Amino acid sequence: MSGAWRHPWEGEGWRWAAPRLPDPNSSRACGLGPSLSHQGRGDVEAIRQMPSHSGLITVMDRAARRAAPKLRRDFNEVQHLQVSRKGPADFVSAADQATEQTLYEELKKARPDWGFLGEEGGTRAGDPAKPRWIVDPIDGTSNFLHGIPHFAISIAVEEPRPDGRGEVTQGLVYQPLTDESFWAEKGRGAWLQDKRLRVSARRELTEALVATGIPFAGHGDFAEWTRIFAAIGPEVAGIRRFGSAALDLAWVAAGRFDAYWESDLKPWDVAAGLLLVKEAGGFVTDYRGSDRPMDRNEFLAANDGLHSKLHKLVAQALRKERPKAE
Ligand code: IPD
Ligand code: CA
Ligand code: CA
Hints:
- 35% of the residues lie in helices and 20% in strands.
- The chain has 326 residues and is of the alpha+beta class.
- It folds into 2 domains: 27-32 and 44-196, Fructose-1,6-Bisphosphatase, Chain A, domain 1, CATH 3.30.540.10; 205-319, 3-Layer(aba) Sandwich (D-Maltodextrin-Binding Protein, domain 2), CATH 3.40.190.
- An 8-stranded mixed beta sheet has the order 2-1-3-4-5-6-7-8, with helices on both faces.
- The structure holds D-MYO-inositol-1-phosphate and calcium ion (2 copies).
């Protein structure tokens, strides 16, 4: 580690102390435990909201937290490398690979016969009758590379289905710099640590803060994105491009963003985030309104009221003819 300045996460200094997930084997995890009694006012609400989860969430949360300290140290190092002649690119790619390897080892330890799909290492086969992990070790790599503190680890469980389409049943998005663990389990809701998440209740476009992903060099359809942007932009309170699809979706689930659209993503970008939005009561479709957004690789996520309004705008934008080439 070069330089005298130390990042707060390295020392005993500032750290945002987020509550950990309850142990699934403890009575607290099923909302019955006496350990709630100290919480005073709001106990009833707390009991009602106490998460119960399968234990896989604990495995995923633990794996992410095992990988996080090195990621935080690497992020600190990247900030120093910005001004070096070589730049941080190789260093970041090594950090990406090392994080994925840690996640792979941790998850493999817990479920030795499951397959693994990771952005860095591709597919590692497992028992086809068993679920597989879908992992993005750093979602928001460009942010990481530029020393911008907005990136996350994304882990999902995809179960095999007889029709050959996998179904994501668990998802976790962990943001190492804020220690926030967003997680969802099919049928059990979406949570931020032990707090139940709901998508925002805003109904008016003029109040909506909308996230998006913008195509970039060699990636995505810029003309299409521009048409959608031109349709949505004048109607809403604001548009944000923060650079992590996993966090964009987690933040829609948490009601921080009211909606999100993006296309041309990979399964590891969105597997966990899509489940978070659905379990938080949101809608996710493609730009045509199909609830299988992975098929066309287009994603429009929001609460139901805003979703139908935004979908109309997107559909109008896509009906408009592409400008003719000169
Ligand atoms: C990227 C982020 C970004 C999205 C890109 C993705 P990466 O993933 O999710 O928000 O717009 O399309 O590739 O490369 O940072 O893992
Ligand atoms: Ca990604
Ligand atoms: Ca990545």
